Amino acid sequence: MFERFDLAAFEADSTDATAVDRICRETGFLILQGHGVPQQVIADMQAAVTAFFAQDAAAKEQVRAPYPGYPYGYIGPQMEALAASQGEETPPDLKESFNGGPLRVPANASADALAFCYQPTLWPDLPGFRPAWEAYYAAMEDLATRVMRVFAVALGKAPDFFAPYIGEPISALRALHYPPTQGVPLDNQQRAGAHTDYGSLTILLPQPGSQGLEARAPNGDWVAVPAPADAFVINIGDLMARWTADRWVSTLHRVVAKPHQPARQSLAFFHQPDWDAEIVPLDGSDSYAPVRSGPYLMDKFKSTGA
Ligand SMILES: O=C(O)CCC(=O)C(=O)O
Ligand SMILES: [Fe+2]
């Protein structure tokens, strides 16, 4: 069900993205190889994140999100249930996370944006953590811009079609740690409950070879998403589905919990257009009312009890 797309090959001739259009219509998940992100940037980030989660609870609590709804910092175990964003009541997800926001605050940021996505990231007191995080964030921002060029071509637009919408993106980076599971989880309890992502696209890097990430196929089956060492997993978010008037799908996915699983780590970069970007269906239809990216994200975010 999951197909590969080679970004380097596309960039060499910049013409054919029909496979991406098909993949985004059918599964909303693609495996991106030829991405060019230096292996060292990835390895440094993974090491930094491993060191962060290995700390004791008190150290992690020092950078906890200071109030419910604060978008960044540490969110401890049992604090979030992603299925709530689908209106499902479930026990909390079996995970912890560390979250950070944009590396720069634009000079003209609005008060609303400053109070939400431009709140400061809370840096842990760990040598090397911040530079590794920022290098990875910057690499993801760059990669997302390149993938948006592919998306533009896949949608029959000029490669730089999305540029005016993503000059100051309000993307977030989330490091996820799923501790080893013990006995049988509670009914409906998952490592990450079934949800769709909110934004334009997500760049996922599950720990290579790790298991548990599943996407829901059109026939309702849950299908394991591979975690290859040489590629990123890209998936479409709700805002892109809306932007394309549902030509592309924002697919339900989850990370399953089973008894006695080893720990699992994953990195998720949630790309989100500029705060003020106005998202209007690209087919010219009125299938969705216009929304602005920032307020749209804020409304979505409030639904998970984070
Ligand atoms: O842990 C993963 O690989 C996926 C997590 C996820 O889907 C999310 O945080 O939105
Ligand atoms: Fe997700």
Q: Helix and strand string, N-terminal first?
A: EHHEHHEEHHEEEEEEHEEEEH
Radius of gyration: 18 Å
Bound molecules: 2-oxoglutaric acid, fe (ii) ion
Strand order within the widest sheet?
1-2-10-7-12-5-4-3
Number of strands: 14
User: What do we call the CATH topology?
Assistant: Jelly Rolls
Low-confidence blocks of residues: none
How many separate helices? 8
CATH superfamily: B-lactam Antibiotic, Isopenicillin N Synthase, Chain
Name the CATH class: Mainly Beta
Shape: globular
Family: Belongs to the iron/ascorbate-dependent oxidoreductase family.
Keywords: Ethylene biosynthesis, Iron, Metal-binding, Oxidoreductase
GO molecular function: 2-oxoglutarate oxygenase/decarboxylase (ethylene-forming) activity; metal ion binding
Pfam families: 2OG-FeII_Oxy, DIOX_N
Structure commentary:
- This protein is of the alpha+beta class.
- It has one domain (3-206, 232-302): Sandwich (Jelly Rolls).
- It is 27% helix and 20% strand.
- It has eight helices and 14 strands.
- The strands form three sheets. It has an eight-stranded mixed beta sheet. A four-stranded antiparallel beta sheet has the order 6-11-8-9, with no helix packed on it. A two-stranded antiparallel sheet has the order 13-14.
- Strand 8 (213-216) and strand 9 form a beta hairpin.
- Helix 2 crosses helix 6 (129-154) and helix 3 (39-54) packs across helix 6 (129-154).
- It is globular, with a radius of gyration of 18 Å.
- The mean pLDDT is 94.
- The protein binds 2-oxoglutaric acid and fe (ii) ion (FE2).
- 2-oxoglutaric acid (AKG) binds next to strand 5, strand 7, strand 11 and strand 12.
